[in-house]
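Hello,

I think I submitted the iron/sulfur cluster job twice by accident. Can you confirm which output corresponds to this input? Input:
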Amino acid sequence: MKKKIQQAFIETINREYLKCAACGECRMVCPVYGVEGVERSVARGRLALAKALADGDLELTDRVQSSFDNCLLCMACVENCAGHVDMVEVVLKSRAYVASLRGLPKVKALAFKALGTDRKYQDLGAAGARAVQSVCTAALPENSGLRLKLARLNYPTLPPLAKRPFIGSQDRVYGADKRQKVVLFVGCAGNYIFDDIPRKTVELLNALDVGVIVLSHQGCCGAPVQAHGDLRSLETLVVNNVQVLSDSEFMDYPIVTICSSGGLMLKQHYPRILLQTPFEKQAKALSCRTMDISQYLADWIGIDTIKSKIKHKIPHTLTYHDPCHLGRGQGVTTQPRALLKAVCDHYAEMPDAGSCCGLGGTYGLSHTDVSRQILDKKTNNIAAMDKVPTRLATGCPACIMQLTHGLARTIPDMEVAHTVHYLWQALICSDPCRS
Ligand code: SF4
Ligand code: SF4
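Support: Only one job matched these inputs. Its output is below.
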C-alpha cells in the first residue's frame, strides 16, 4: 500500500506539474492566499513544493507538510486554471504521501478506523457524545463566564446532536406506494447532527409523490478520511457504500444526496478511488445515478410541479450560498436558485456567492484564524447587501454551521438552513414562521 501511494504521488505530481504555466492566476482566487499572501499558500507554490519533494530535491519537514495542510480543497484554483491543473488531486495525493511516511496522529487514525466499523458502534459513540454535550450545556448557565469565553473562541459551535440517528437498523422505504422512488444518501451530518434535513427531505419528496429508500448499511462518504490522507480507511468506507448502494433491488433508482461533499465523493471521487479495482464498474454506475437533491427537484420533478404545491411563500429576504463542492464541484448552481425563487418573491443574490465560507471540513479547527478571516469576508459581503437578507439557504451542513457562527456576529436575526428546509416550509409546513 505504501509503495502504491508513493508511486501515485510521483505520477500525479509529474503530470500536473507539466500543465502549470506558472501564470499565477490562482493567486487571484485562492481564499487562503487572499489572507496570507505567500507563495506556499497558493496552488502554484504548493505544486512547486510537491514537485521538489517528488524529485527528491526537498526534505519532508513540518513546514513542507503545513503547505499541503493549509488548503481548503475549495476548488477555486481548479475552476480558474487555464492549464487545468487539478490542485485537489495534487493536495490529496500529497497528504496521502505524507501520511504514508509520517503516519497520522493516533487519535485521528483511531477515529477514521472507527468510521469503517459496524454503524451500531458509531451510533453508540454519538449517543455518548450527545450525553456529554447535554451535561456540558446544562452545567453552564446562559450567562456563565466560561460560556462567554467559549463563545469568543472562533470555532463554529456544534449544534445539539440528534436525539437518535436518522438511519435506523433496518432498511426503510418511506412512501412505498409512490409513483417514483429514490435512494437517499444521508451522510454523517444528516444522520447525527442535522437530522431535520433528511426528515424534511423525506416529507418533501413524499408530498411530490416520490418514495424514499433509506438503506441501513450506508456509512460515512469518506470525505474527512480522504482529506487527511488515510487511504486504507478510505477504501473500506468507499467499498462498503458502493456495495450497499449497488444492491440490485434498488439499481434502477437515482441516488439523491443532501450534503455537497458526500455528493461529490459519490459522483467524482469514488470512480477515481476504485479505478482498476474489482469495484470500478459499480463505482462508475453509482456516479451516474447520483445527484444533489436540488438537481433532482428542479430537473426531474420540475419547477412548475414545485410551484403547484406551494402552500405559502417564504415572506423573508432570502439569499443563497454556493457550497464549493456543489457549485464548483458538481456544477449545480442554477437549480437551487430556481427552487428558492419559486418559493420566495424576495430572493436576493449575494455578491460572490461562490466564495468559500472558510470551514473546509476540519480546516476551520486546524487553521482557526485564517478560516475566520475568510468567513469574515463572506459575512461582510452579505451584511453589505442593499437589502440585508434574514434567511440564507445552502446545500451543505458544514456551511450551515460555519455561516450560522459567522452571521450571528453580523446579522443577529439571520437564519441559515438547507435549501430543503425552505422548500419544506413553503410546501409542507402549516405555519412557516413557527417551523
Ligand atoms: S493558475 Fe494554474 S497554470 Fe497558472 S500558476 Fe496557478 S496552477 Fe499554474
Ligand atoms: S483548493 Fe482552494 S485553498 Fe486550496 S489552493 Fe486551490 S484555491 Fe487555494
